Amino acid sequence: LSESAVSVEPVEILPGLFLGNASHSEDLKSLKKYNIKYILNVTPDLPNVFERDGQIRYLQIPITDHWSQAGDLANHFPDAIKFIDEARSNGCGVLVHCLAGVSRSVTVTLAYLMFARTLSLNDAFLLVRSRKPDVSPNFHFMQQLHSFEQQLNIDPTQSASAKQALYSASSSSAASSCSSSSVG
User: Fold this and answer.
1) Does some domain include residue 175?
2) pLDDT in the model for residue 154
3) Domain containing residue 138
4) Nearest residue to 116 (alpha-carbon basis) of 141, 150, 152
């Protein structure tokens, strides 16, 4: 991956839902710019840098990007979806990140899109890739997402209308109602 292909700032997938990497989670300027008050850290060892000051709410999913933990990541989908929904319903930005922003965080973001927007895995993947080309969840995470798609009873051939609605969604960050008091 070339240096120029790495995004300097997190990428907005849906209004208020950002996908990024470790450096994005430590960039206070970008976090403030996008009103990100929630951070979903999908790593076992990266620190929650701003947790102590209470301005940002964290959820950490301690999973490595290794096939042996693929099933463990799927077990965290419900908590991750709830966390992302909470942030967005409060009008706050939420950053989903892992180390590189390519596999674990993408997997969680795909699960959220499948659940919240009733998108097939393929449609969710195409949406994320259209906004962030360097996505590559590992094979075992993709298997978990296929299983999740089946659990959600999503027919991969019937989600075109949902996809159209999602693509036409505004990408403006209308998160001005989010305040630090709502994340306490």
Assistant:
1) no
2) 85
3) 11-167
4) 152
